[in-house]
Design goal:
The structure is a homotrimer of 339-residue chains. The first copy, chain A, is of the alpha/beta class and 339 residues long. The first copy, chain A, has 3 domains: 74 residues, MurE/MurF, N-terminal domain (Udp-n-acetylmuramoylalanyl-d-glutamate--2,6- Diaminopimelate Ligase, Chain: A, domain 1), CATH 3.40.1390; 207 residues, Hexapeptide repeat proteins (UDP N-Acetylglucosamine Acyltransferase, domain 1, 3 Solenoid), CATH 2.160.10.10; 29 residues. Chain A has 4 helices and 37 strands. In chain A, strands 6-9-12-15-18-23-26-29-32-35 form a 10-stranded parallel β-sheet, with no helix packed on it. In chain A, strands 7-10-13-16-21-24-27-30-33 form a 9-stranded parallel β-sheet, with no helix packed on it. In chain A, strand 19 and strand 20 form a beta hairpin. Chain A starts with a strand and ends with a helix. Chains B and C meet through strand 19, strand 20, helix 2 and helix 3 of B and strand 2, helix 1, strand 25, helix 3 and helix 4 of C.
């Protein structure tokens, strides 16, 4: 971890735990200052921290405690295991489909014609792969994930259960009181190392591909509209929605329940606070909050002022009355001169 | 398309594309003025537009470019194809169910007792049709769509993957600290030409049917509560939620992430801007924004004023100080008279 | 029902209906005063009410009409029936799994190694039960519900279709521009009598179990983040999201589309109005609204004042002009003395 040990470096650690729950033999960490109060009383045998602190446990000092702790958790516990192997005869695999070496396919999976699945993938029960879809190497698709035809999935992509990739989006041309469905000629491209949460929806593009960039991660129930371009390294927290044709740069962070309107251009490294609604283009590095969203620092102050609106109204009314009284009794200068 | 051609009407077109991406041999369109800047430089061979413009491509002039373009996209590309035919022996179909002529049913579909499926339907893998449910003709149910028992689905209805139609809603009577579940005696009725997005939920009614009117379309992750009546021709964008027993008239548009409280009456042709929360009845033609929502024009102005709240507070404070000073130094008229 | 009958107690009732829709032979109820107007004209043969009223139907007077009516609905209609029995040979059940007596399992269900299913459960088609997961007695899992490995489900739990329990949450440590996935060592525990809606997601904990307390109910598309602790008896309405590591006490009510930020402590009996965003700890009994949320009574007043912001700005501007004018013409007292 490239860390420095403060205390007995020979202590034996077998598992990870939170500061408040940890017992002897466990390691914990501090990354969020809300939990700093637990350092002094933790029963953990070791803690990963950024700065030395008054704490009974052995301290491992590192620059990025959450990252170091993540590495330790992988070492001690590994990632989620998959309790099946081989390609089940209970799956329905079209004879024109190709399946890479070492790929595991569970019962009740459907792989449609001309689909291509890479090596060492894990396809859980109920996964559907549409015609001509392509899945890279080392992907994990959890149960009941649906990949529509033509979708392109890169390497090391993880999709949690019940998510839908490549459905037709909300494309209807209204004429004569009828909403006419437009064909979705574009596909969905999930680039390498993308992770999609559970119950998410990523719509196919109408005219060009919807794209989710390398290493971008989403929470659950996220909806990515048709034609949206999400850059690499973005974090889209649960219940975020991005309307059609908008583009996000790289390393944007959209907190929970954020909505991005359609046809917008959002720059790189943009941060949008939870529940915000973005209705206009945002430059690189913008940090915004609100609905409609604007500069986060200003917006936090402005939104917290909503609380005082009734008081402002009262004070304004009082001022109007006082001023009117003053106006009625005041002797203007010219009148005074006439005295 | 009933359009007028400006330019060489003999140019050959093979596919559709966006203005910025189009190449020779492709046709594009302009419906959103944000993209007007691309007209002058597009490489498309033809464009569908409402008004003539400075553009190197052949122009097809029509009243409704998006609709005309939709027709062209259907002609050139057709709608999504389905890579299977017939009724799979790998489906589980109760012997009491009836299946119409030309209907295609993939592996791992379940059709329960007394269910009735119309003609020329397409049921993808993992679709579940409950007992006594009825599906009309020419419907498409994408993988893992769940239709609960008793649901009524009209003709030409499309449901995208992983959506749930007819689950019990949030109906609990609380007594003695226990939330007692109420049976949902009503069903869900999806009328003709309804389209439901991916990962949506439409709850069965408690006392009467939940109904989604003819030609209404929804985005993804939309939730329609128990007993809700949605009129014909409505557009419910992704992540909209409508709480129980509310009614919407015809041709309403609810933008992304809108919430409608329960037991409300929303009129015809109502438009609700994105992220709004509607908490009271709305008359025909209302256009609203905000949470709680009110008149859209007023609300856009009012919400954009939130930004200036800290400044308003400062100005109000300054006024109070200046007025107090003035009050303390001013010679009222009666005192002046005494001078 | 422990009710008092006003009218002919011998009238025969065969089914339930809403006040406005009910016919002879049906019983209805009044719990929401919005519907009181229908009492005078209902065609129901009987109504369950809290207070006597001018109504042509037989009245059953009870303290809690909705609860009494729920009991009647159960008596007359029963809960949802399940149209299959036994354990299907078309399910895929690991030989190490245990299945309790009377449990029904439909086609295309997967039960993984060492999973334990209780007695009298109903597992619909497409349900996936991960390795070492445990389901109590009398549970109902609707089609395509996914239970990840290790999840603990109590007795009498109901999960509606397409919901996901136990997926990995949004846990990524960012280092060197890469978001590194942290293993989720915790599980999900759904205690007895929990009901989960359709298309919901409950994430496994990173360091300790995510827990949903006894008798808590959720609507559809609800997302419960990793490590969240929801107390007993809570009501989480559709599209609610609770970010990681937050805790809710008992009997909290979160209305539709509410978001709770991460790492918060929400007390007992807290009520959060629809669409609110909670960004700080809340004590027992707090009632809040807004984003960020604060005291509900104040917030409803404050948010309704947003409408008048443009008018406040105009009035403030007018005051400033009037005051400036007054300042310019007023003879201060000391100058007046010099006159």
């Amino acid at each position: 971890m490239n860390g420095r040990v403060a205390g007995d470096g020979s202590v034996r650690i077998s598992s990870v735990a939170g500061l408040a729950q940890a017992q002897a033999g466990q390691i914990s960490f501090l990354a969020n200052s809300r939990y700093a109060k637990f350092l002094a009383t933790t029963s953990a045998s070791a803690v990963v921290v950024a700065e030395p602190s008054d704490c009974p446990a052995v301290q491992i000092l590192v620059k990025n405690p959450y990252y170091a702790f993540t590495q330790i958790a992988v070492l001690l516990h590994g990632h989620r295991q998959h309790a099946f192997s081989g390609v089940s005869s209970g799956a329905s695999i079209d004879c024109s489909a190709s399946i890479g070496e070492g790929t595991r396919i569970q019962d009740f999976v459907v792989i449609s014609q001309d689909a291509r699945i890479g090596r060492r993938c894990v396809l859980y029960a109920g996964v559907f792969i549409g015609a001509d879809a392509e899945i890279g190497d080392d992907c994990i698709l959890y149960p009941n994930v649906v990949i529509y035809d033509g979708v392109r999935v890169g390497h090391r992509v993880i999709v949690q259960a019940n998510s839908t990739i490549g459905e037709d989006g909300f494309g209807f041309a209204t004429e004569g009181g009828v909403h006419h469905k437009i064909p979705h000629v574009g596909r969905v491209v999930l680039e390498d190392d993308v992770a999609i949460g559970a119950n998410c929806s990523v719509q196919s593009g109408v005219l060009y591909d919807t794209r989710v960039g390398c290493g971008t991660k989403t929470g659950d129930s996220v909806v990515i509209g048709h034609g949206v371009q999400v850059g690499p390294g973005c974090l889209l927290v649960s219940q975020v929605g991005i309307a059609g044709s908008s583009t996000l740069g790289r390393y944007c962070v959209l907190a929970g329940q954020v909505g991005i309107a359609g046809h917008l251009h959002i720059g790189n490294n943009v941060v949008v606070a939870a529940k915000s609604g973005v209705s206009e283009d945002l430059p690189d590095g913008a940090k915004v909050f609100g609905a409609p969203a604007f500069d986060m620092k200003q917006a936090l102050k402005a939104y917290s002022s909503i609380k005082s609106l009734p008081e402002l109204r009262r004070r304004l009314k009082a001022l109007e009355l006082r001023l009117a009284k003053l106006e009625s009794v005041t002797t203007p200068r010219d009148e005074a001169l006439q005295v």
